[in-house]
């Protein structure tokens, strides 16, 4: 199949334009959403690449007075969002182009939310019905363009922002934070180094896997999760082995968007642990999920036997069972060069009690197959530090 056969326009869960070279449609995408002066939000690393100059050039040619804001950290903070809102207001902007990996996309979506609010950011944390406090009319429209394949934040309705004062990652949520238009262009991901490709790809897998395993009733999400995991199985090793494999890059971008679509069904223990670990140790989110994955699976084994059998059959694994799936995860992880324990990231067990407490309180914990308490999460964390896969 030629690559042009992959050029499509989708309207589920939002408008998604997928295909090689489609970043060139950025200006028309902005215009469709009524923008005249978009603010391009990205991280400092990308801001230095030709990609950003190209996008600003395309906007300028189309008569759009685009501005640039790039003060976004990996694991973006409330202060980053505040600075972005100030830049948006100072430049009199009327929309946001969100460009980058999960951190830049999350920051950009939060900035687009906050330009129209007079309450502080943390008032919109995803707790209870806090989202109803949002002044929807004030929100800025967003065109989202991912440059990594993992978080799927481009089709997500939330942003993860670090509350620096309290060293905790908070989920900021509103249904309208889902970007109105998404461009999935694999050429933007060709330059990603293999280890980032591997870690972000495993994040996509963790989204689909946790969504698939969560106990809530959502067959549509479950179907999307299954096919997303099939794409990861077939294309992540290819994308890691050869970063210039455009089809593998495209399929991983799609798998990533699908993973984030699927996790409307729920996440679970991997993310419940990865969020506090990211906040406490500033470690890479996808890498944390990749390392935690088998430990969390083993802890949930009693609730997952039948589900894993079905999943292993769909993925056409050698053995259609929980162990068949677990072994595939372990082999994949090793083949991608991902460490087997958290100790490899210089994380020790000294804060195990705190990690357990934070994981039990994390909103993702609600989707875990078994109800786990703080002590259970501490135990899983200690095992992941030690590399101990026994139940
Ligand atoms: Zn994730």
UniProtKB/TrEMBL annotation:
Record keywords: NAD, Oxidoreductase
Organism from which the protein derives: Balneatrix alpica
Statement: the UniProt record of this protein carries the keyword NAD: yes
Cofactor annotation: Fe cation
A matching Pfam family: Fe-ADH
Domain Fe-containing alcohol dehydrogenase-like C-terminal positions: 197-384
Protein's UniProt name: Iron-containing alcohol dehydrogenase
Domain Alcohol dehydrogenase iron-type/glycerol dehydrogenase GldA: 13-186
CDD domains found in the cross-reference section: Fe-ADH-like
UniProt similarity note: Belongs to the iron-containing alcohol dehydrogenase family.
């Amino acid at each position: 199949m030629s690559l042009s056969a992959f050029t499509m326009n989708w309207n589920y869960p939002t408008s998604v334009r997928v295909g090689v070279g489609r970043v060139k449609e950025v200006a028309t995408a902005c215009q469709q959403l009524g923008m005249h002066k978009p603010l391009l939000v990205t991280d400092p690393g990308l801001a230095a690449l030709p990609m950003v100059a190209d996008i600003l050039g395309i906007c300028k040619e189309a008569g759009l007075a685009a501005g640039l804001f790039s003060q976004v950290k990996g694991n973006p903070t409330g202060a980053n969002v505040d600075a972005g809102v100030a830049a948006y207001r100072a430049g009199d902007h009327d929309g946001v182009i969100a460009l980058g990996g999960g951190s830049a996309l999350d920051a950009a979506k939060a900035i687009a939310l906050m330009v129209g609010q007079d309450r502080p950011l943390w008032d919109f944390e995803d707790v209870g019905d806090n989202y109803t406090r949002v002044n929807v009319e004030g929100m800025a429209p967003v065109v989202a363009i991912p440059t990594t394949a993992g978080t799927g934040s481009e089709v997500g309705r939330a942003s993860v922002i670090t509350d620096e004062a309290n060293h905790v990652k908070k989920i900021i949520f509103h249904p309208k934070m889902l970007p109105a238009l998404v461009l999935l262009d694999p050429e933007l991901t060709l330059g990603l180094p293999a280890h980032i490709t591997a870690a972000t790809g495993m994040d996509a897998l963790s989204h689909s896997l946790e969504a698939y395993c969560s106990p809530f009733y959502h067959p549509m999400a479950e179907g999307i999760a299954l096919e997303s995991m099939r794409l990861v199985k077939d294309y992540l090793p290819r994308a890691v082995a050869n970063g210039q494999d455009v089809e593998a890059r495209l399929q991983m971008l799609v798998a990533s968007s699908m993973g984030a679509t699927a996790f409307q069904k729920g996440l679970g223990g991997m993310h419940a642990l990865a969020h506090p670990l990211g906040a406490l140790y500033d470690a890479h989110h996808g890498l944390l999920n990749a390392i935690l994955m088998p430990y969390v699976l083993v802890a949930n084994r009693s609730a997952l036997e039948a589900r894993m059998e079905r999943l292993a059959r769909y993925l056409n694994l050698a053995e259609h069972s929980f162990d068949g799936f677990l072994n595939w995860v372990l082999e994949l992880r090793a083949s991608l060069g991902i460490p087997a324990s958290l100790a490899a990231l210089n994380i020790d067990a000294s804060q195990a009690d705190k990690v357990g407490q934070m994981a039990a309180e994390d909103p993702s914990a609600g989707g875990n197959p078994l109800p786990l308490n703080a002590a259970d999460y501490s135990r899983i964390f200690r095992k992941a530090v030690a590399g101990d896969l026994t139940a």
